[in-house]
Specification:
This protein is mainly β and 103 residues long. The protein has one domain. It is 4% helix and 62% strand. It is built from 1 helix and 10 strands, in the order ββββββαββββ. Strands 2-1-5-6 form a 4-stranded antiparallel β-sheet. The chain has a 4-stranded antiparallel β-sheet with strand order 3-10-7-4, with no helix packed on it. A hairpin with a 4-residue loop joins strand 8 and strand 9. The longest helix has 4 residues. It is elongated, with a radius of gyration of 19 Å. The relative contact order is 0.31.
Length: 103
């Protein structure tokens, strides 16, 4: 069984006991998070896309860690104008363990 959830403006395909990294969510390590915006659920026999039946579905997860992702280097340059800028960025992410998919 898997579900497609939306959080942080992105969509994730998740299964039970899977560990995923998503945009930062409020909460401390060990707290439970519930996702109600479910886009699709696939059980062993069928795929459910109906919004009325998915409004009752939920995906529960546990916060494993609050970390920063890998550094991304942003480099701007304009030739012949002696213009160079180098910036780095590290996005905050939340590591989740999916504990339950309820249809």
């Amino acid at each position: 069984m898997y579900a497609v959830i939306e959080t942080g403006g992105k969509q994730y395909r998740v299964t039970k006991n899977e560990i995923i990294k998503v945009e930062r969510l409020p909460g401390d390590v060990g707290h439970a998070v519930e996702f109600n915006k479910i886009l699709a659920v696939h059980d062993d026999s069928s795929l459910t896309l109906d919004t009325s039946s998915l409004s009752r579905a939920s995906v529960k997860a546990e916060i494993v860690n609050q970390i920063k992702s890998d550094k991304i280097i942003v480099f701007k340059k304009k030739p012949r104008h002696n213009y160079r800028r180098k910036r780095g960025h590290r996005q905050y992410v939340t590591v989740l363990k999916i504990t339950d998919i309820h249809v």
